[in-house]
Amino acid sequence: MPERLSGAVVDCCSEGLGVAEVALHPGASVLPPGDVILVFIARESVEALIERLHALNVKEVGSISVTTPELLLSDRADEAVAAAPGEGADAMIWDEVSRQTGEDSRLTWSYLAFLVLATQLAAIGIVTDSTIAIVGAMAVGPEFGPLAALAVALVRRQWRLGRGAALALGVGFPVAMLAAALTAWLSVPLGLFPADALDRGSAVEFIYHPGPYSLIVALLAGTAGMLSVIGRRSAALIGVFISVTTVPAAGYVAVALVLGEYQKAAGSALQLLLNLVGIVVSAVAVLLFYRVITKRLPRDAAQRLRRKSQPPRR
After folding, report:
1. Each residue of 264-300: pLDDT tens digit?
2. Is 243 exposed, middle or buried (0-12, 13-18, 19+ CB in 10 A)?
3. Which of 10, 31, 186, 302 is the most exposed place for a label (fewest CB within 10 A)?
């Protein structure tokens, strides 16, 4: 960052609870030229520090990088963590969540490939009445990324992020369903499964029978999923994928339309809609809760920091 801002940034990093160490490396940055400042701070205090750095316009003239060390042995760091309010596992870093969900919600070839593969697995599980294949489809499906990004966009009013997430969902599901329908259409004359396969499957009836528990499960899954994103718990996120029937419902719609089971296709389409809406609603509720409990930088303090970031008048 520019040398003129270093003093103000060091002051911001040094004040407040949870700061263990601050190091200043004058002139260490070559491109762009400027100083490098390293801060060891408890995770609970990171969001407050980032707000102050944003008020100083550090992101516009330099950069902010947040990393978590695998191992840190320091009595001073332990004391800083103990002094910081709250718990690190509950700490919310808004920029981190926005960036993570934004990366997971882009309409990429890999996203489309995973969604198509998951829907194909679901379709196979449906026509073979295989619960194992359906659970595998749930685990492979990448749809929670755009749903979480949509929730973040609604709460933070980041409409560009919301448009990207909506595009990923609006393009991804139709493409995956079309691929599953094409596969089913080719499989029937080849004798890979009978035309009355949907009448024989008892293990997959839950997919086209939406009910109150469908919405409840989606709400619980969306809550758990957003909490896992905030707490960076990937294992819990996999559990969320397995608990919702978004991908199986999409696969069922495709197969049912090909086989002329329009009532079952409508039921599974409703199941898909309930899951998508329920996940987004509960994820928004989680983010709103964290927004309420997270202390914001007072407006007058932010204005003072912005004045410090202004270049001196000549």
Report:
1. 899 999 989 999 999 999 999 999 998 887 776 656 6
2. middle
3. 31
